[in-house]
Amino acid sequence: MPFRRLWATTTVVLCALAGLLLGLVPSAGAAASGTAVAAAPDFKAPYPCGQRWTYSHHSAEVRRALDFVRADGGTTDGTPVLASAAGTAHRHHQANGAGNYVSIEHGGGWRTYYFHLSAFGAPDGAQVAQGQQIGSTGSTGNSSGPHIHYEQLYNGVGQDIRINGSALAYPGGYHQYFLTSDNGCGGSGTPFMTWGSGTRVRADARLSAPVVTTLAGPTSVRVLCQKQGDTVNAEGYTNNWWSKLRDQNGFISNIYIDHPAAQLPGVPLC
Ligand SMILES: [Zn+2]
């Protein structure tokens, strides 16, 4: 939709302005190649379990931020913003920049940012758990459309964002890459065994989605949720159901789950 495209472009440009106003833009090259970085918390997506959002990074964006908008038919505005890891949450306000925003100190030099909130969801200084609501998605400050501006910083320097241990891409526009949240799912998934060898785990339930890892052989996995995607024909089976694997942070065709049903019993929809 032309309107949406225009809106998205404006959003990322304004986000870059927000960062400049904060005065926190690191010097060029400060992404610290060669610098030892302490192990990061196991960060999860900053929005609720099962929701699918798309993200982008404008070339003029502040630090290594990604801007997220919903891509699952739900409304971005007002959606809960969740702590991507446990820590101490602080409220901030910057009228002409980040708007209402929360920073969470995770310890070990790690911090996350959540900008442009419509409302706060945790008291200033609160200890928050991973998956706890810290605010609501909005467009406060220098932003022209609801989105979550999200950052991971180490010792004040923006890092390439990793979710469940996997580095996200930095596309220049929305609807190229997607991330389904497993934050706050409350469960640890349902255990299954896989079968086959060289099974590709993909970023989404599509054969064109990037491969995030490969299962060398039969593997014990935890399935968080399942959804219908591309139809796969393999090993004499045809199935369009895919399982989201907790530890691999990606999807495999249900053909490779060692269970006779095409749609797994007792596993929620993504
Ligand atoms: Zn932004």
TrEMBL record:
Residues 1-30 form the signal peptide. Keywords: Signal. InterPro entries: Cell_wall_metabolism_enzyme, Dup_hybrid_motif, M23ase_b-sheet_dom. Residues 75-158 form the M23ase beta-sheet core domain. This is Peptidase M23.
